[in-house]
Amino acid sequence: MRILVIEDEIELAQTLRTGLSAEGYSVDLACDGRQGLWMARTGDYALIILDLMLPGLNGYRVCAQLRRQQINTPILVLTAKDGDYDQAEALDTGADDYLSKPFSYVVLVARLRALLRRPSAAGPLVLAVGDLSLDVTARTCQRAGARIALTPREFAVLEVLVRNAGQAVSKADLLHHAWPDEAWDPNLVEARISSLRRKIDMPFRRRSVETVRGTGYRLVDDDARGR
Tens digits of per-residue pLDDT, 95-142? Predict the structure, then answer.
């Protein structure tokens, strides 16, 4: 699940990306309002975290323009302005929730999850390929009704494969989604793929995670084609 953070405080933006990536989300950063508006218009995001005091184009205008263009991605506003009128203006322009700086990271993650549970959140909340399912909000995995415990990185890799079921996904794409701050190292992907196979395939006598030589990996419904 991809999240866009529009925040001009570089240290805070990097901290949010590191923390949310550890939770299993893929995070893109924009450092000013115009860049953030363009990315929000063109990208496929489940949620936007938006600062109000931005260079180029402030957060109020970014939010208002997105809503005028019928882009209904949930927006969580972050701001150092904590007055009632500031909060009311942010909500009136189309924001879904509001958090004042400084804020608790635990509270931010809880607000984020609450927004993603709403029906307006982009994309389905439960993704499925055959009898394998992912609840992308609760961050849980099941196969044939059995709960499977995954680490945040394993979940992030599997989510990309599930969203692209039947298609080859390169190691570079998997690395970009699950480790956005890491240098290129294919061993990171290979280790998680091996772990996923031990968890979602071997106990169920399945072979749904396929290696595509020279490219990467593909997730298939192996039950549909016969085991």
Answer: 888 888 888 899 999 989 888 877 654 555 788 999 999 987 778 999
The pLDDT score that the predictor gives to residue 180 is: 64
Residue 24 has pLDDT above 90, yes or no: no
- The CATH number for 126-225, chosen from 3.90.940.10, 3.40.640.10, 3.40.50.720, 1.10.10.10, is 1.10.10.10
Beta sheet of 216-219, edge-to-edge order = 169-170, 216-219, 209-212
- In the chain, the N- to C-terminal Cα span, in Å, equals 30
Between CA 155 and CA 24 the distance in angstroms is 6
> CA–CA distance from 191 to each of 112, 135, 180 (Å)?
29, 23, 17
Output the pLDDT for position 188. 86
Strand order in the sheet with 2-6: 26-30, 2-6, 47-51, 75-79, 97-100
Neighbour tally for 136: CB within 10 Å: 21
Domain with CATH 3.40.50.2300 in the chain: 2-117
Q: What is the pTM of this model?
A: 0.63
CATH 3.40.50.2300 at 2-117, yes or no: yes
